[in-house]
Design goal:
The complex is a heterodimer of chains A (656) and B (533). By secondary structure, chain A is an all-alpha fold. Helix content of chain A is 64%, strand content 2%. Chain A has 26 helices and two strands. A two-stranded antiparallel ribbon of chain A has the order 1-2. In chain A, a hairpin with a 5-residue loop joins β1 and β2. Chain A is elongated and about 105 Å long. With 533 residues, chain B is mainly beta. Chain B has three helices and 35 strands. In chain B, strands 1-25-24-23-22 form a five-stranded mixed sheet, with no helix packed on it. Chain B has a four-stranded antiparallel sheet with strand order 5-34-33-32, with no helix packed on it. A four-stranded antiparallel sheet of chain B has the order 6-7-8-9, with no helix packed on it. The longest helix of chain B has 24 residues. In chain B, 46% of the residues are buried. The C terminus of chain B is likely disordered. Classes of the chains: A mainly alpha (656), B mainly beta (533). Chains A and B meet through α12, α23 and α25 of A and β17 of B.
């Protein structure tokens, strides 16, 4: 809703420029792809000379330039949609009904519609370039009674409709496979090399995907093709050419050259779009160097510590954490800045803000895991709180923390979120520099469930969902002391206390029997068990970086920290890591949590979010080991609870 | 420059090198009755049976069954791809239509021409995958070796041994169980390595894929199920001959001689990023520098690359004579030693800026000459020297072990481990230390330094007769302390742990470490791996 100043500067000065650069490169690549398309679409083995000369003359003709300008426009629009719809935390639908809601969301509808139109435009350009057979919608033909007349050129119609179909399917697949998710890679390569490395995969994927889309399209056209055909004939007063087979017959579809042209046009459409998306990802995820300490006062809010703790778009937060993880590994000079003391006063402000921010991230995740475990443990299966999106939206408006409306995940994230969001919100309210990563867990006001029809259902669902009870019930309060007694940090324990008054948004008045529709919805929600586990870890990339950054900084402090600034926070760092380790261990004992997702064979959308929980578990262990191997027996001098000391001893003996 | 002529003469036949102390290698005459320490293992060849089963051998057990051409071609397509399909059609030209058999014959001939041309550019592609592993493995004479790979855990006292029968055994002096790892895909193990900063993960380079075992150190199971292994594979990336974990434990790189790209794996997420560079025809050997800043990647052609791991750019280093056979890094990652096939010298490369972009020196300098030298011993002349199979540098950077290939035919030119002392201050220098000798008739095949030996360095050598011995080098480290080596409390000297190194009586006659305030309990005498009574 309202951004602070710094988020504006970042989006204005970095994100927009990166998006513009990626679109510019996509436009620059377009002539090459278009030329390839022309050459391949006019391919004829028997007349090579004629083939080449035709291609050359076509590429220099006026119609080619016109369609090229159109294609540029399409690429720009697609690039704009990439920028508008991208997300760094995937929206994972925990149930079929949530997925359906995502598909029917108005934002998604706009996306599909625009892609349909774009597909039609690209397919029309293809029809112009491929050749005379497809060029015009109407062609002269002679009817049985002899007089020349204008007939419908069905080939043109088929090709143009293919564009619309491909555009719509692309948009749908984007939702199903989270294609708007922008993954960050563990390997930092230069942009050109990253692009070059992924290019073959993208070409292969677009060819295969186009094959599937064309097949589906032909099936649809075979059954429903007569509707658009007769409509166009009626509207434009065209005749059907009875001398040709209609294309929605078996004989008409068994035209190899037409199939080839359809497939290669679909490939062309998908390739241009995939390349635009690929370039956007490559440019957006490039490392951005934040100064640890800004020398100028007016740029102080752009320094790493301020950026980490501020309220901001997710992308800024992610890039800042990535930068933190990299600086902690690779640059001693920037690490020295982190460990330095402020000039008048001698306070380790940089370290304090960075470490407290990372710790609050870890505490967030721990709370989320505990709450998730509670819901699952009481019920055997995770319940979703789509029902209470209503009450959450009310309370979050009142708390005034629904930030980053435009820049966070566009999907209806409210419906798939984990139950913990109430905790998160309250913890944000609890301490002002609380995690802005709670942003995706604030409810989506325009979520489909806030539509009036479903809103009526919402309170009725409540009594059936145990979620309302478990959350505010003594469950967590009871577990709280057990899990948190060990925390030596006042901050982590402080974040617990506001969690119990979450009953402010208490369960609604218990109504009578749930309606039939509500029960149906409820049943539909109980599916995709693994997805709930994925959803808990959806933004875990940030936690992974926080763990890497913290552990590398602590390990480096063994030899580099001159003033001992890290020592003061070492107990709380170890404490929160061990608590998180316990929570993660418990989570992986749940059914379905440790089952591996199927490895996707070929898709442009990145599936790394499905394995984030495994990556987090491995990183967490490595982080603790990094600290224990560096400090060794010195850790015995660190103050901590007996339970944690026992766990730490396991790590010291390499028995975890 | 150091040469082998400066070395003390090899021990007479029958003597065994025990350890180094007071700047000398201590040896003892081997008797009939020997007692080795608990971690000295012996795997006689007879107890290990390699798998004789090949994929095609089971065909002979079944009756011939005639199928139609189309079913056979479909099977051939599934089993052997396009070439198999074409061959099947050409072989059964009686059944197939004439135009089909003729055209497929033409295509097959064309494919063979192309592949033979490709093979003439990169001759190693013609090898079978077993031979390829044997050719490019760091183990001397890999195909005949009882112990095919060996890896110390980087932080604890356990190690993994890959054996000829494709099983892997894990030994830990603190636990009575020695788990045996077997997996359907675990064939022809070329390399094993433990994940740093982790207690359980062991990466295994196999013939067809990469396996990452998760062996729970607290588990009492002796046969962990194959569900404990993650399978990482990528089409076209087999056989895997070399793997390397990043020292921070986050990434794993793997190399295959048939794949021009090197894979960087995020193991937990099971995703990989191929890093491809044209030229070289494959990647054979990988070595990650201990500070994590560089990776050495050698190719089957006279070319190797040094990758810088921050942005993953590389420097090309063409060699003159042959491919880079082996290489190792100094503990701070600023210097790399490597050897080239066909040459008898050790080269050194320095990297000045380890933090920023890659800044190597302009040319490699020769630091040691290993040309053949003949020593006159009472038993006759022994020739030592020649090409190098493997280099190993201890984690403190003070001892360099070099495995010299020798000549398996000639008895007077055995394979030998030569150990150098290394000095970096005031200038980099290699000084002679001595030869490591094993039992009579046993040749060294593989060696590795213990990653965190507290009293100096310890070299583990795997011998051709299936024995694994450990040779400690006692010295005081001059350099900076290694971050992961804690000298204050050696675990095996503590009262709780079992004694890894049996106190022997051979040291009693000596002055106990005159210049070293050693943490070794002096009252017990020396500490030695193998005590001879």
């Amino acid at each position: 809703m309202f951004y602070t100043e710094q988020s504006c500067w970042f989006v204005r000065k970095v994100v927009y420029w990166r998006a513009a650069a990626s679109i510019a490169w996509a436009v620059l690549l377009l002539p090459a792809i278009a030329a390839m398309f022309v050459v391949l679409s006019r391919f004829s083995l028997l007349h090579p000379v004629q083939w080449i000369s035709e291609c050359l003359s076509l590429l220099t003709s006026a119609s080619a330039i016109l369609s090229f300008i159109l294609l540029c426009g399409v690429v720009v629009v697609v690039g704009f949609f990439n920028l508008e719809y991208y997300t760094v935390t995937p929206s994972i639908a925990c149930s079929k009904i949530a997925l359906l809601a995502q598909l029917l969301h108005p934002r998604q509808f706009v996306h599909s519609l625009v892609h349909c139109v774009m597909g039609v435009i690209v397919a029309w350009c293809c029809a112009i370039t491929i050749g005379p057979r497809y060029q015009t919608l109407a062609s002269a033909c002679s009817l049985a009674d002899g007089g020349p007349q204008l007939c419908l050129n069905e080939y043109h119609l088929v090709l143009v409709l293919l564009g619309a179909f491909v555009g719509y399917s692309h948009s749908l697949c984007g939702v199903m496979h989270n294609m708007n998710y922008v993954p960050f890679h563990a390997v930092q390569q230069y942009k050109y090399l990253r692009f070059k490395g992924t290019l073959p995969v993208v070409v292969k994927c677009s060819a295969i995907q186009s094959l599937y889309f064309t097949r589906n399209y032909l099936v649809v056209y075979f059954f429903l093709g007569y509707i658009p055909r007769s409509w166009i004939c009626n509207t434009l007063g065209l005749q059907l050419n009875s001398s040709l087979h209609p294309l929605d017959s078996i004989a008409g579809l068994l035209d190899l050259s037409m199939l080839y042209h359809l497939w290669i046009s679909g490939t062309f459409v998908l390739l241009t779009w995939y390349l635009t998306a690929l370039l956007f990802r490559v440019f957006l995820t490039e490392v951005y160097n934040f100064p640890v300490q800004s020398p100028f006062a007016e740029q102080a809010d752009r320094s790493l510590s301020k950026v980490l703790s501020g309220q901001q778009p997710m992308i800024l937060k992610f890039l800042a954490l990535q930068d933190l993880a990299l600086l902690s590994q690779h640059s001693p000079s920037r690490r020295a800045q982190v460990f330095s003391l402020s000039q008048p006063g001698g306070h380790p402000h940089n370290w304090n803000s960075i470490s407290s921010e990372c710790l609050s991230l870890l505490a967030d995740l721990t709370q989320r895991l505990v709450a998730h475990h509670d819901t699952v443990a009481t019920n055997g299966r995770a319940k979703l709180q789509s029902a209470d999106s209503d009450k959450k939206s009310v309370s979050s408006e009142s708390s005034g923390h629904s930030m980053t409306q435009e820049f966070r995940s566009p999907g209806p994230s409210g419906i798939m979120q984990t139950p913990v969001s109430v905790f998160l919100r309250s913890s944000v309210a609890g301490h002002p520099q609380g995690s802005p990563l709670t942003a995706p867990f604030t409810p989506d006001l325009d979520s489909p469930f806030s539509s009036p029809g479903l809103r009526r259902l919402a309170p009725q669902l409540e009594p059936t969902s145990p979620w309302g009870h478990t959350l505010q019930s003594p469950h967590l309060v009871r577990r709280g002391p057990k899990l948190w007694s060990a925390s030596t940090d006042s901050q982590t324990s402080g974040s617990l206390s506001p969690s119990s008054p979450a009953s402010a948004a208490g369960p609604g008045p218990a109504t009578a029997e749930p309606s039939l529709l509500a029960r149906f919805l409820h049943n539909r929600k109980e599916q995709l068990p693994e997805a709930s586990s994925q959803a808990v870890f959806a933004d875990s990339q940030s936690h992974i970086w926080a763990l890497e950054g913290l552990s590398h900084l602590v390990a480096a402090s063994f030899s580099e920290d001159q003033f001992g600034v890290v020592q003061t926070t070492l107990p709380s760092i170890l404490g929160s890591m061990l608590v998180l380790q316990e929570a993660v261990d418990r989570h992986f004992k749940l059914p379905h949590a440790s089952s591996k997702p199927l490895r996707s064979t070929c898709s442009v959308g990145d599936c790394t979010f499905k394995t984030l929980r495994f990556a987090l578990r491995a990183t967490l262990k490595t982080a603790i080991y990094r600290i224990t191997t560096t400090f060794g027996e010195h850790l015995n001098a660190v103050k901590m609870s007996a339970e944690h000391r026992k766990r730490l001893q396991h790590f010291l003996e390499f028995k975890e | 420059m150091c040469s082998l002529a400066l070395f003390p003469a090899p021990l007479p036949r029958g003597h065994i090198t025990l350890c180094e102390t007071n700047n000398e290698l201590v040896s003892a005459e081997s008797c009939q009755k020997q007692e080795y320490g608990p971690l000295s293992l012996y795997f006689p060849r007879e107890s290990l049976k390699p798998h004789s089963r090949t994929e095609n051998s089971s065909k002979a057990a079944f009756l011939h069954h005639s199928e139609t051409l189309w079913i056979r071609t479909a099977t051939a397509w599934r089993e052997a791809g396009l070439t198999g399909l074409l061959e099947e059609i050409v072989n059964s030209s009686a059944e197939a239509p004439r135009w089909l058999s003729v055209s497929s014959g033409c295509v097959l001939a064309l494919l063979r021409r192309v592949s033979s041309f490709h093979g003439s550019l990169f001759p190693h592609l013609k090898l079978s995958s077993e031979n390829m592993i044997a050719e490019f493995s760091q183990v001397l004479n890999w195909s005949d070796c009882a112990v095919r790979a060996f890896a110390w855990h980087p932080h604890t006292e356990k190690f993994a041994v890959a054996l000829l029968d494709d099983s892997i055994k894990i030994y830990n002096p603190k636990s009575a169980t020695a788990p045996t790892l077997k997996h359907r895909l675990q064939r022809s193990v070329a390399c094993v390595q433990w994940k740093p900063l982790c207690a359980s993960a062991l990466a295994v380079a196999c013939q067809s894929c990469l396996l990452v075992w998760h062996v729970d150190p607290c588990s009492l199971s002796t046969r962990p199920s194959s569900g404990c292994a993650q399978v990482l594979s990528h089409p076209g990336h087999s056989p895997v001959t070399s793997i390397a974990w990043s020292p921070s434990g986050s990434l794993l790189v793997s190399a295959s001689p048939v794949d021009t790209s090197m894979m960087v794996w995020d193991v937990a997420a099971e995703s990989c990023v191929p890093l491809q560079r044209v030229g070289g025809g494959g990647v054979t050997f990988l070595s990650w520098s201990p500070d994590g800043s560089h990776v050495l990647a050698s190719t089957p052609t006279p070319l190797f690359r040094v990758w810088e791991t921050r942005t993953w750019t590389c420097e090309r280093w063409p060699c003159l004579k042959g491919r880079c056979q082996s290489g190792c890094w100094s503990p701070d990652g600023s210097r790399m030693l490597f050897t080239v096939q066909g040459e008898t010298v050790i080269y050194s490369l320095t990297f000045s800026d380890t933090t920023g972009t890659l800044k190597g020196s302009k040319a490699a300098a020769i630091v040691a000459d290993l040309s053949e030298t003949t020593f006159a011993t009472p038993a006759g002349d022994i020739t030592v020297g020649g090409e190098v199979q493997l280099l190993a540098w201890d984690p403190r950077g003070e001892r360099l072990a070099v495995l010299l290939k020798g000549d398996s035919e000639a008895a007077a030119r055995p394979a030998v481990v030569a150990v150098f002392k290394t000095r970096t201050d005031p200038m980099f220098e290699l000084l002679p230390c001595g030869f490591i000798q094993g039992e009579p008739g046993a040749e060294p095949r593989l060696m590795q330094f213990h990653p965190s030996f507290p009293h100096g360095a310890m070299l583990t050598v795997c011998w051709s007769n299936g024995r694994i011995t450990h040779v400690p080098f006692y010295f005081l480290s001059a350099g900076v302390p290694h971050p992961y080596i804690r000298t204050d409390d050696p675990p095996w000297c503590s009262s709780s742990g079992s004694l890894l190194f049996q106190p022997g009586d051979i040291m009693d006659s000596r002055e106990p470490y005159p210049e070293s305030p050693s943490p070794i309990p002096v009252s017990q005498g020396g500490v030695c791996m193998c005590s001879v009574r």
